[in-house]
Amino acid sequence: MKKTLVSALTTALVVGAASTTFAAANPFADVPADHWAYDAVSELQAKGVVNGYAIDNTFRGNQNMTRYEMAQIVAKAMAKIESGDSASKAMVDKLAAEFRDELANLGVRMDDLESRMDNVKHSGFIRYRWARTGGNAQDGKNFEGWGGNGRDEQFIRFRLNSAVKINKNVDGMARVEWNHDADTDTDTFRGAEIQRLWVHGKVGTTDIYAGKLNPMDHSPFLHGLVFDEAITGGEVTFNKAMGKNGKISWTIDAGKSSQTKVFANADANTRILGTHVKYVNGKFDANVGYYNFSNGLLGFDNTDSVGLWGVGLGYKAGDFYITGDYSRANKELLNFGKDAYNIQVNYKGAKESVPHSWGAYVGYQKLSPTASPFPTYDTVYYNNWIGTKGWKIGVDYTFMKNIVGSVQYFDGKVVGRDNNDKAKKIFTQVTFSF
To answer: In order of start, what are the domains of the chain with their CATH numbers?
Structure first.
């Protein structure tokens, strides 16, 4: 920091003596008198952080200034900011970010500023999806193609993530989403919803999460076969290295779900309690665990409780990643079946940062409201409350940096009904990331 202060002070003096030269050769546009920086500098001047313009120690609030001249004042502020209050520091950081290029040309180092700015990082996407489901099996009708009994679904989603670095052992995240959902029967706009809001601390090799979180983000169970859903609660994962490349982790999840995906009248506060152990060694991974879902999960009454266990395997061979996952519930309701599974072969993968990268996958799955109540897969039939089994195939492609398109097709039948109740679904989507 001392080096930064010396550099800033020296630069300010040198530039002050030769400001006419800089102004004449300035390649940047002038800063207009109504620019927000004028108000910021005026406030800093009132607090005594800066003394004024370099030439005559005044601040010309009613005149345009070159960006070099304004950067000179910012350099002075940076030299004194360590003794200022938090509000003043934040203001100087904002000014320094605005005049970053000019400060760099003046020789002012930005290391300290950049380290502070890195404490918060924003990301997100805008996504549009269109899907069509064949038939109308929820009413007991047989599949009749993509025609009159087909069902259209579409949504537009805007997601904003804010990751926060608190210190070397603690970080946090907030996620807000805006959604517009439309299908054959409804058209709904949902305003801002908080999807994630958690803090994470690391104690030795143990990870602790608390708040509104999705275990799928941190330590997924069965590659997402059982649930991909936000819960309000906590997660603890104990990690231990095993051999040269191996690692074993034990995760405990506890909380309440804020969403319902099984039945329209299901309780929105489904209690979730479970644990699983995961082992990873190079190209191989294995997962086994038990979870309990209770308090109206299946939409009958608050005494409903479903316990399920599961096991999953994964193996990476070159560009291929093969997974196999199975779960089984302790009860069966409405003939939906006690078990669920997913067998999938993935090839390569579309990377949003790499134009023209792509990936493909093919798999066979069976989904059940009791054995896979909150799955991550997009081929659940009609609002997720009827189980299905069948084949799926999909392709993802990066058209250009941060723009990825996806197409998926599913062909199968409804679980727990007559074998003639077929189910087909196709969806396409495009995601614009930032």
So the answer is: 2-117 (no CATH), 120-433 (2.40.160.10)
Q: 2 or 71: which carries more pLDDT confidence?
A: 71
CA–CA separation, 106 vs 82, rounded Å?
20
Assess contact for 222 and 253: CB atoms under 8 A: no
According to DSSP, the residues that pair with 392 across neighbouring strands are 363, 410
Provide the whole-model pTM: 0.68
173-217 pLDDT, tens digit each: 999 999 887 765 666 777 788 999 999 999 999 999 999 999 888
Give the residue-averaged pLDDT of 303-332: 91
300-310 pLDDT per residue, tens? 444 567 889 99
Q: From CA 2, how far away is CA 248, in angstroms rounded?
A: 45
Q: 405 pLDDT exceeds 90?
A: yes
Q: Which residues contact 296 (CB under 8 A, 6 or more apart)?
A: 266, 267, 269, 270, 302, 304
Residue 79 pLDDT level (bands cut at 50, 70, 90): confident
**Total number of residues shown for the chain:** 434
Q: Which residues partner with 314 through β-bridges?
A: 285, 323
How far is residue 237 from each of residues 173, 204, 218, 254, 285, measured CA to CA in Å?
Answer: 18, 11, 9, 12, 16
